[in-house]
């Protein structure tokens, strides 16, 4: 056995050294052919991930080693008009790891003004609203100085990122998209690295990356709105698994000094359940939400406009080709019950920045395949774990099955009475296990 282990380690080391030497040789050859010109990094997409990724690359000095490109229309909307009106009533849960990255990028002070710290979260599971069938599990923040998460409006986060990027707009370049571009062939004109952040843009690059993906949740929908309350939420979040789908309430910061409020995210297994809820009157709708948590009917007194969105989810095991890489929505979309999809996108950006920074330090941005491969391997572990966890929780705890309900209670009891196990879930949810970039350490 020891001979086999030594042989395996020796062969693995030879392979890795050979691969690195091969990439260094290719990079040097490309430099000679290109006249020692800068590498080109092209960011494809039309969402917040584009501006956040561009900001991360610039803040970590990659603009000194590469030309960073965004689509002209995107750059125009993101940078030249940072004060534009942005309308979106979604609220996002930002983990401490995400907050630390925002601090690193210099945007947290702008977001913190309207971010509500969440010090605890109660999770319920039951097949009916009767108290005897209900089992709750409470997760509390490790300390008063470090909450479980911050709940912030998406519009505020987007404005903060855009305003910060506006100060660095001179470091960004634009390109005009052309469907005939040979994105995967690095030449003097084409990018060495193409980063796809948007699912809508994925089809352009499908010939370069394996199209295999796990796709579920077709036909599922969710609604979101903001609820006014008759009493304080005490900076506490709530999650419940109903037969119709998961429902979550997130505390919202009372910026204007009006009534306390919470953000509602309610998922449904099909359009029928959603339509049944939307047909209710305002008072019936608010009473139904309060009933889901065994609260008084008058716990809520008003709500904002209700918005609907689809809940189709997917995850891709293959995130890169030779010169193309996926992150964010192009790589994964998760169920909103854990509030982790945006945090996973932030982790994607942090991890990719680390690997591109390492490639730049070694002079390998011209031939980045080995670094993109490492990025894929490391991110697949994290995203797959969260994808499996959210889908398992949603499927198991929402079933009207007595055996599964008893199993759910048993799981809750095990976690509740095992401090080390509860602490493990808290640390994972807070993003405590992530890389150096999220904690401002040297790359």
Structure description:
- The chain is an alpha/beta fold.
- Helices cover 41% and strands 21% of the residues.
- The chain contains 13 helices and 19 strands.
- It has helices at residues 2-34, 48-59, 72-80, 96-105, 108-112, 154-166, 202-205, 271-278, 282-292, 341-361, 369-397, 402-416, 419-429, and strands at residues 39-44, 66-71, 91-94, 116-118, 120-125, 135-140, 149-153, 172-175, 193-196, 214-216, 221-229, 236-242, 245-252, 261-268, 300-303, 307-310, 313-315, 324-326, 332-333.
- The strands form four sheets. Strands 5, 6, 11, 12, 13, 14, 15 and 16 form an eight-stranded mixed sheet that branches.
- β1, α2 (48-59) and β2 form a beta-alpha-beta unit.
- The longest helix is centred in the first third of the chain and has 33 residues, at 2-34.
- The chain is globular, with a radius of gyration of 24 Å.
- It starts with a helix and ends in a 14-residue tail after the last helix.
- The model is unreliable at 1-15, 29-35, 82-86, 127-133 and 179-188 (pLDDT under 50).
Instruction: Please state the overall shape, judged from the principal axes of the Cα atoms.
Output: globular
Q: Tell me roughly what share of residues is in helical segments.
A: 40-55%
Helix run count: 13
Q: Return Rg in Å.
A: 24 Å
Low-confidence stretches: 1-15, 29-35, 82-86, 127-133, 179-188
By DSSP, the count of extended strands is: 19
Distance between the termini: 37 Å
Averaging pLDDT over every residue, what do you get?
78
Supply the helix-strand structural class: alpha/beta
Task: Report the portion of residues in β strands.
Answer: 15-25%
Q: What does the main sheet amount to?
A: 8 strands, mixed
């Amino acid at each position: 056995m020891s001979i086999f282990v030594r042989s395996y380690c020796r062969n693995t080391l030879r392979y890795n050294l050979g691969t690195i030497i091969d990439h260094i040789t290719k990079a040097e050859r490309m430099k000679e052919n290109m006249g020692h010109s800068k590498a080109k990094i092209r960011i494809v997409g039309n969402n917040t991930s584009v501006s956040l990724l561009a900001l991360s690359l610039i803040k970590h000095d990659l603009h000194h080693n590469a030309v960073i490109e965004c689509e002209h229309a995107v750059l125009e909307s993101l940078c030249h008009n940072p004060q534009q009106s942005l309308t979106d009533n979604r609220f996002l849960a930002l983990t401490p790891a995400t907050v630390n990255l925002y601090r690193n990028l210099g945007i947290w002070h702008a977001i913190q003004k309207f971010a509500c710290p969440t010090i605890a979260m109660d999770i319920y599971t039951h097949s009916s609203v009767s108290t005897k069938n209900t089992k709750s599990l409470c997760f509390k923040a490790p300390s008063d100085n470090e909450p479980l998460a911050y709940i912030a409006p998406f519009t505020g986060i987007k404005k903060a990122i855009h305003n910060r990027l506006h100060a660095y707009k001179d470091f960004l370049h634009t390109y005009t998209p052309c469907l005939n571009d040979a994105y995967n062939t690095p030449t003097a004109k084409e990018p060495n690295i193409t980063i796809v952040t948007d699912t809508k843009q994925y089809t352009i690059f499908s010939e370069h990356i394996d199209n295999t993906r796990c796709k579920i949740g077709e036909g599922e929908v969710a609604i979101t709105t903001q609820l006014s309350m008759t009493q304080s939420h005490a900076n506490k979040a709530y999650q419940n698994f109903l037969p119709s789908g998961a429902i979550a309430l997130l505390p919202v910061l009372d910026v204007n000094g009006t009534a306390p409020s919470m953000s509602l995210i309610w998922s449904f297994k099909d359009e029928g359940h959603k339509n049944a809820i939307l047909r209710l009157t305002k008072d019936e709708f608010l009473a139904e939400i309060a009933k889901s948590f065994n609260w008084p009917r008058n716990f809520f007194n008003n709500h904002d406009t209700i918005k609907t969105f689809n809940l189709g989810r997917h995850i891709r095991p293959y995130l890169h080709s030779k010169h193309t890489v996926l992150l964010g929505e192009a790589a994964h979309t998760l169920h909103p019950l854990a509030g982790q999809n945006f945090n996973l996108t932030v982790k994607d950006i942090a991890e990719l920045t680390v690997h591109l920074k390492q490639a730049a330090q070694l002079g390998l941005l011209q031939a980045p395949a080995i670094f993109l491969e490492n990025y894929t391997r490391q991110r697949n572990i994290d995203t797959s774990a969260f994808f499996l966890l959210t889908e398992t929780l949603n499927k198991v705890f929402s079933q009207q099955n007595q055996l599964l309900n008893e199993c759910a209670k048993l799981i809750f009891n095990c976690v509740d009475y095992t401090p080390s196990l509860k602490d493990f879930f808290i640390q994972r949810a807070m993003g405590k296990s992530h890389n150096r970039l999220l904690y401002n350490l040297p790359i």
